[in-house]
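Z., the sequence and structure:
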Amino acid sequence: MLDEKTKRCSMQDSIMGMNYRSKLPEIIDSVVTSCSDKGCFEHIDSAVIPSRESIVEIIDLFKDVLFPGYFGDQTVERSNLIYHIGSEITELFEKLSRHC
């Protein structure tokens, strides 16, 4: 049987989830609208788009920043968390800067 605090937290999470969920259609419409712009898919006479490999590396770095220690074979401890995240964000910045 759930205690009162657990019930309140579950109810609050459920309510918050509904608030965010109600914004999804607006977000989806915004993304679809931005992709309907003719320039979205035209890459002629523009900068070279990043390779698939580069995109995968960038996504992997984002995952590591958002979920430190869950991906890859690295050990992240509280004592090195600032260094670890700082290093990942710096590398992410460098990679993104090359492709903008």
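The chain is about 65% helix and 0% strand. Residues 47-100 form one domain.

Let me know what you think.
H.
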